[in-house]
Amino acid sequence: MEEKELLSLIGRFDIVGTPVGVERCHSGHINKTYIVTAVDVEGTQRRYILQRINSYVFPKPQELMHNIRIVTDFLRRKIAAEGGDPDRETLTPIPCGRELLTADREGGFWRVYAYVAGTRSYDTAQTPEMLENAGFAFGKFQQRLSNFPAEELFETLPFFHDTVKRFGDFRQAVMEDKAGRAASVREEIAFVTDRAALCSSVTDRIADGSIPLRVTHNDTKLNNVLIDAETGRAVCVVDLDTVMPGSVLYDFGDGIRFGASSAAEDETDPDRVYLRLDLFEAFTRGFLSGCNDALTDAELSALPIGAQVITFETGMRFLTDYLNGDVYFSVDREGHNLDRARTQFRLVLDMEEKLERMKEIVSRCRRREFRKD
Ligand code: GN1
Ligand code: MG
What angle is formed at CA 263 by the lines to CA 260 and CA 268, rounded to 5 degrees? Predict the structure, then answer.
């Protein structure tokens, strides 16, 4: 879409100043994101995030924005009561009249958030401390939502982390072989099939009640938390599209999957991919401390399994999309989703080897004093 059109779209929202410049931001595999600069009469610049919601993934954008409105309102009140700064510590969606959305000529839906000044996101942890801070922010996010009325949320993506259902989707993709790629990825298909039993290890615990359902973020990648560029503190958890009832095992696990890997999610050389135990420990320490001791024993002892299951699930989702012809995750190159699947499978293998050490680290972190901030 042309800059003129983008500026006119953002002009419909209640932003301060006149939008003057727009830049594409390539983070995220689902929505299209732009950073817009606006200038007010006094010459003060403000930045905004303009996003086109992916309608293939989110066919009901009104329900999605309802969730974001009630979650951010709730978080603002909590943060203010804690003496924090709600404008920095949670996302601020900008209204468009009475809505939080506007439609373009093709029927696509757009939304706007205030840009949190002085922050940025990272695809890899620069230091273990950065990952610890991110873990703390995700743990705290979960803890702040512990008394959120879950029944007021729409389930934006039903069965999102139902790994058993994901396995069914994978099997179907192999059978249909829509893109004619199945024959070239037999090894990866076998990797998934051999581990079918892993799929139910979290869902069974949820179904039998041994692991509670909580309101969770469900997409806790390091790049979904804004980091203060000066202090390195994690300021604000973003990407609230998948806030739904879920398990803390997935939030912990996804933070590990992405943040404690030795390499990028789309690294092309699988030999460079392994689980960094120093980063595993850093995230665990931060996350548990952010949760403020609110997890049950069953949850705590299943955290390493959670990391394994979500990494397996994500690899399976990438492979499924590769087989379907790259219709879900955005790709920048031929084989992008396959590279992503391979990194995840490498991590799963390494986690299988390191499971006992992961458990030891969790036990060690459980006994630590929690930090106060
Ligand atoms: C997607 O939108 P983004 O890039 O933060 C996906 C997550 C995956 C992730 C893998 C709605 O997240 O579930 O874990 O890619 N989001 C959705 O990087 O499917
Ligand atoms: Mg997302």
Answer: 145
Residue 352 CA to ligand 2 center (angstroms) comes to: 27
pLDDT tens per residue across span 329-366? 999 999 999 999 999 999 999 999 999 999 999 999 98
Q: Do 286 and 137 share a domain, yes or no?
A: yes
Domain with 342, as residue range(s), is: 128-372
Give yes or no for a contact between 279 and 259, defined as CB atoms under 8 angstroms apart.
yes
Pocket test for ligand 1, best of 25, 27, 29 (most atoms within 8 A of CB): 29
Residues with CB under 6 A from ligand 1: 28-30, 57, 219, 221, 224, 239, 241-242, 265, 314
Give me ligand 1 centre to Cα 317, in Å. Answer: 10
Which ligand is located closest to the Cα atom of residue 328?
1
Asked if 38 and 16 count as a contact pair (C-beta separation under 8 A), the reply is yes
Residues contacting 271, CB < 8 A, separation 6+: none
Tell me what the mean pLDDT of segment 189-201 comes to: 97
Same domain, 225 and 193: yes
pLDDT per position as a tens digit, 75-91: 999 999 999 999 999 99
Structural element, H or E, at residue 110: strand 109-114
Whether residue 201 sits in one domain with residue 301: yes
Residues 225, 101, single domain; the answer is no
pLDDT in the model for residue 372: 46
pLDDT at 234: 97
Residues with CB under 5 A from ligand 2 (ion): 219, 239
**CATH number, domain at 248?**
3.90.1200.10
Candidates 25, 26, 30: which one to mutate for ligand 1, based on the most atoms within 8 Å of Cβ? Answer: 30
Instruction: Please tell me whether residues 208 and 135 are part of one structural domain.
Output: yes
172 and 111 both lie in a single domain:
no
212 located within any domain: yes
Same domain assignment for residues 36 and 147: no
pTM of the complete model beyond 0.85: yes
Write down the H helix ranges in 110-268: 128-144, 163-176, 186-194, 200-207, 248-259
Say yes or no: 338 and 200 in one domain: yes
- Condensed to tens digits (0 to 9), the pLDDT of residues 217-255 reads 999 999 999 999 899 999 999 999 999 999 999 999 999
